[in-house]
Amino acid sequence: MKEDICLHAALICLGMLCYSLAMVTEKRNHTRPLLHGHHEKGKEGQVLHRSKRGWVWNQFFVIEEYTGPDPVLVGRLHSDVDSGDGNIKYILSGEGAGIIFVIDDKSGNIHATKTLDREERAQYTLTAQAVDRNTNRPLEPPSEFIVKVQDINDNPPEFLHENYHANVPERSNVGTSVIQVTASDADDPTYGNSAKLVYSILEGQPYFSVEAQTGIIRTALPNMDREAKEEYHVVIQAKDMGGHMGGLSGTTKVTIMLTDVNDNPPKFPQSVYQMSISEASIPGEEAGRVKAKDPDIGENGLVTYNIIDGDGVEMFEITTDYETQEGVVKLKKHVDYETKRIYSLKVEAANIHIDPKFISNGPFKDTVTVKINVEDADEPPIFFAPSYILEVEENAGPGASVGRVHAKDPDAKNSPVRYTIDRHTDLDRYFSISPEDGSITTTKNLDREEKAWHNISVIASEVHNRHQEAKVPVAIKVLDVNDNAPEFATPNETVICEKPQIHEPLFTISAKDKDNTANGPRLIFSLPPEMIYKPNFTLRDNRDNTASIYAKRTSFNHQIQEMYRLPIVISDGGSPPQSSTNMFTIRVCGCDGNGVLISCNPEAYTLNAGLSTGALIAILACIVILLVIVVLFVTLKRQKKEPLIVFEEEDVRENIITYDDEGGGEEDTEAFDIATLQNPDGINGFIPRKDIKPEYQYMPRPELRPAPNSVDVDDFINTRIQEADNDPTAPPYDSIQIYGYEGRGSVAGGAFVPSPLSNTSGAACVSAGDAS
């Protein structure tokens, strides 16, 4: 209220000041300079007159925002040539002339008719001229002058923004710059103190202050804590007139946020955490979570967790969940309730980013104790060994003992265990197992040469809970027994010439034994005793599981005997020893002087003197040509034969269509009425024509013959048709008489006539559209 009264008083004083200034200005503007001039003589006695300006004035001034009842007198114009008789007329032109500024054309007084605002326009340029009232002849040259609008303090300061936002770190020192606010004043800064601004703080003490001249806001209190208060609202005032009374002011709001620094260490809300985990859990499962609270935010509040001590360091691990800032305790290794039931861990939580400025606040870490209880679970049986390798001799027979597997229930109740064989691993059911003690036996003979290893799986399950089961692999090795005799490993046949070399081996044979080397490390070759007395061939054991055959004769004749069979006994060194007699075949063939085979009686060896390459190529070419001919012949036979005569659609003289419809014959009297196909004229007993020659001759009637010179072809044809129809002796020689009767009232000119006289398959369609 006091401010409003002071403002009204200031405006009244300002108005009185403006009025006084206007009166002074009017007197100052009423200058009346004298018109000066002189005469000069020109050429030939002519007198020249040179006029000087009849008026001179300075700038005019007018105060803005004048709200008086009468127009404001800006100034007065007067010329030296004006004698006051009213013959001089004053003219005003330029900016605002006639609208804002008007002139009395007789007295030259200039008035402002409207309120002026310096902030809109600071000055106006006008032109004045004195002319003769009667002739409008210029008496003075036009002259420009300026009307300046004098400023008054009518505009309050305005800030660039209505609201400001700024940030400053918490715990900043006193005097830390926060933000600078700036206001502007539309008044004239060169005239008085209307635009001289002073800043002050209205709200926000005692936390902040502002510099009066610059508008810079600074912190005023130390150790401001973001965790205690984060947001502050400050009001800044800008006042003109140098901040003195009567000045105008403007305000703005500044929102200041304290940004976070890492000035708080993490703290656990409790000293001990209790957790539990089942012994059936697998590594990686979560046992529980711990969380240390840090009031800082962002990276200043990031916490990492580590296990630094405890008897569960090897069994558990901890990871950091950065989304929830929690430490996740996980199982690292399997735990056993029966072995150890409780574990203790010491967990540390520490900040990742530490600000050295606040290191004196103490260690940025905290520790807590974690107790983990192991819960008992119904576990499956456990085998004493992760896998088993058992042995059994082949041919041991059903019921032979192979070995035993053993498992037990690790739980405290020690439930009985039952054993079974996974039949997917023993499809042939070679083995069986005792459900009570896990003893494995055979169910049939095993042959090592057929299968040396058997891999099965044994399942151990609890008797009271069949779902709790364990599986173990069992590999059973079948031990070898010397039960296989040696036999030839190479072909048991060879070919020799009729005159072999007796000192060179004819053939080297080798043998194989299905048993392993433990049952026959070396094979022995020999001939039966009865072959010793036959002087044809002999055998030499090379003692390397091979033997060589030699000829004891210098010549053989394949025409006398073409084949020899040599029995060879092969035995091993096993226990008991095994032996076999193998027949070796030797064929005798004819050879040339170089030992090349020429001929042998057996067909398998006659091909050695086979055809030459050229002959074989010729034979193959002939076979290919014959195949091509056969293919072409078959292809041509399969092609559909084309008709020899092609009937055009336009040729309707005689078209015969055959149908695969077998007629009823003479005995079929119900299929159709044969009488309808007969000539109606034959009903009266007269048949005009037959297919056999009659016994009597028919003489044509002379009255039906056309005139010899007649050129009417239609009459000629009709006459001939009538004669043919009435002549019983004439056979149907003409093609137009190929059927007995066409039918009456035929519009299309043709008829389909089935033949009733034959019981053969088919029917005839005859067109008689053209009688010629």
Automatic annotation (TrEMBL):
<keyword id="KW-0325">Glycoprotein</keyword>
<feature type="domain" description="Cadherin">
    <location>
        <begin position="79"/>
        <end position="159"/>
    </location>
</feature>
<keyword id="KW-0732">Signal</keyword>
<keyword id="KW-0812">Transmembrane</keyword>
<feature type="domain" description="Cadherin">
    <location>
        <begin position="384"/>
        <end position="488"/>
    </location>
</feature>
<comment type="function">
    <text>Cadherins are calcium-dependent cell adhesion proteins.</text>
</comment>
<dbReference type="Pfam" id="PF00028">
    <property type="entry name" value="Cadherin"/>
</dbReference>
<dbReference type="GO" id="GO:0016477">
    <property type="term" value="P:cell migration"/>
</dbReference>
<keyword id="KW-0677">Repeat</keyword>
<dbReference type="GO" id="GO:0044331">
    <property type="term" value="P:cell-cell adhesion mediated by cadherin"/>
</dbReference>
<dbReference type="GO" id="GO:0007156">
    <property type="term" value="P:homophilic cell adhesion via plasma membrane adhesion molecules"/>
</dbReference>
<dbReference type="InterPro" id="IPR027397">
    <property type="entry name" value="Catenin-bd_sf"/>
</dbReference>
<dbReference type="GO" id="GO:0005509">
    <property type="term" value="F:calcium ion binding"/>
</dbReference>
<dbReference type="InterPro" id="IPR020894">
    <property type="entry name" value="Cadherin_CS"/>
</dbReference>
<keyword id="KW-0130">Cell adhesion</keyword>
<keyword id="KW-1003">Cell membrane</keyword>
<feature type="domain" description="Cadherin">
    <location>
        <begin position="269"/>
        <end position="383"/>
    </location>
</feature>
<keyword id="KW-0479">Metal-binding</keyword>
<dbReference type="GO" id="GO:0045296">
    <property type="term" value="F:cadherin binding"/>
</dbReference>
<protein>
    <submittedName>
        <fullName>Cadherin 11</fullName>
    </submittedName>
</protein>
<dbReference type="InterPro" id="IPR015919">
    <property type="entry name" value="Cadherin-like_sf"/>
</dbReference>
<dbReference type="InterPro" id="IPR002126">
    <property type="entry name" value="Cadherin-like_dom"/>
</dbReference>
<dbReference type="GO" id="GO:0016339">
    <property type="term" value="P:calcium-dependent cell-cell adhesion via plasma membrane cell adhesion molecules"/>
</dbReference>
<feature type="domain" description="Cadherin">
    <location>
        <begin position="488"/>
        <end position="604"/>
    </location>
</feature>
<feature type="transmembrane region" description="Helical">
    <location>
        <begin position="615"/>
        <end position="636"/>
    </location>
</feature>
<dbReference type="GO" id="GO:0016342">
    <property type="term" value="C:catenin complex"/>
</dbReference>
<keyword id="KW-0106">Calcium</keyword>
<dbReference type="GO" id="GO:0000902">
    <property type="term" value="P:cell morphogenesis"/>
</dbReference>
<keyword id="KW-0472">Membrane</keyword>
<keyword id="KW-1133">Transmembrane helix</keyword>
<dbReference type="Pfam" id="PF01049">
    <property type="entry name" value="CADH_Y-type_LIR"/>
</dbReference>
<dbReference type="InterPro" id="IPR000233">
    <property type="entry name" value="Cadherin_Y-type_LIR"/>
</dbReference>
<dbReference type="GO" id="GO:0005912">
    <property type="term" value="C:adherens junction"/>
</dbReference>
<dbReference type="GO" id="GO:0034332">
    <property type="term" value="P:adherens junction organization"/>
</dbReference>
<feature type="domain" description="Cadherin">
    <location>
        <begin position="160"/>
        <end position="268"/>
    </location>
</feature>
<dbReference type="GO" id="GO:0007043">
    <property type="term" value="P:cell-cell junction assembly"/>
</dbReference>
<dbReference type="GO" id="GO:0008013">
    <property type="term" value="F:beta-catenin binding"/>
</dbReference>
<dbReference type="InterPro" id="IPR039808">
    <property type="entry name" value="Cadherin"/>
</dbReference>
